Amino acid sequence: MGILTDKFKAKADKLSAEVKDILKEHGDKTIGEVKLSQIYHGMRGITGLVTETSLLDSQDGIRFRGYSIPELQEKLPKAEGGSEPLPEGLFYLMLIGELPTDEEAQYISNLWQRRSHVPNHVFATIEALPLSAHPMTQFVTGIMALQTESSFAKKYAQGLSKKDYWEAVFQDTMDLIARLPRIAAYVYRRKYKYGVHIQPDGLLDWAGNFAHMLGFEDESFRELMRLYMTIHCDHEGGNVSAHTTHLVGSALSDPYLAFAAGMNGLAGPLHGLANQEVIKWIFEMRKELNTDLPDKGQIEEYVKKTLAEGKVVPGYGHAVLRKTDPRFDAQMTFGKKHMPDDPLVNTVWNIYEVVPPILQSLGKVKNPWPNVDAHSGALLVHYGLVEYEFYTVLFGVSRSLGVLASLCWDRALGFPLERPKSVSNRIVKLWLEGKEEIWGGD
Ligand code: NMX
Ligand code: MLT
User: Which residue has a Cα nearest atom 31 of ligand 1?
Assistant: First the structure.
């Protein structure tokens, strides 16, 4: 791993020095103002974090180190005979900031293969949960059990110099990413396949091997996993899972603790759990209408009914995006190539035509367009992965790539404990009367 750590360290040292200079010269510059409404409304639009790995534009969507999803599909290394990017290559790009060669992506693949052993106590801990436990609960429990392996926690307990934090976080990052597919596949096979587990295939890439351990040997499913793991991996720093991982990591909680915390955030229905909610919602619609291919009029009525019941339309809307999510587009392209006639996939496309004008007509929804979760489940169902409660675990395995690469950067750049100021409603009222200061200090 020397080559990778050396390269990362050199980049981090250079950027650290640059950041120091920037702050010395420009640290007092004001970047904008904060409205009272933003404090109450989930801090939307407040720039408060620095994240290296990716950047989200409300119109263009996500770019990883400057590269859009179609550009990643073109430029990143592929598996032999495949056309989707290898997530290993994207991890390299997010971490190092450069496109990897085929050899560099392969190097990461081999590294993760070698580090993928999961100790037995992790499986025993998962087994202690009832089968009925949600897959995300089982997944997070497995990650927490794996925390016994944290090199950062051990080294910190022995006395670790601040300048060496990054390296222990880096080791944990590589170990954890290497082991997550095995834990996730274990949860899947335990819950849905009578506990009949599948051993890893050491000749496959990270996502291909994950597909294999889940029990799907179709080459086009492997391609889907490579695409899935690529597009879900990062969405700049402010989303709930990335922000939580970063926040918890800022307390020097080790990467296992920080990532598990992030996954608990991903398990919320307004964040990653939306992918299961979408398919559940479509299945319920099909059942109620007694058809596998509801027409647009039927979909319209069902959407209106959902809204009338005070529910959100899952898979639609976004806190930052104001256009169709390019991750939705990438999945639509995959669907058109691999399963153009699939009724469920076609229903997703019909919903895409029906929902936006309805949400627009409400006059309050800032983004009526589909997000990543509106499409993912239908592709999985096509291949037989129908157990939709598992979908957020897939999202979580992918999300590890971005948030853990970011955690390496957090420690390498020496970012401090995150601790914003809060105020009570009483202080807000006193501030409005000119009797109190609301601003948080220096
Ligand atoms: N269906 C119905 N109402 C919606 C929707 C939707 N899909 N999206 C937003 N709204 C409502 C929202 O509930 C709020 O209503 P109210 O003022 O009565 O509380 C109003 O529109 C304004 O919300 P926005 O400012 O447009 O959205 P916000 O930034 O607060 O929230 C989401 C963003 C993503 C939480 C929201 O759009 C939503 O709940 N979408 C459905 C769940 C979903 O798909 N989440 C997945 C996000 C992507 N991911 O993977 O994490
Ligand atoms: C994500 O991928 O994290 C979601 O789209 C949510 C977000 O960006 O806020």
Answer: 319
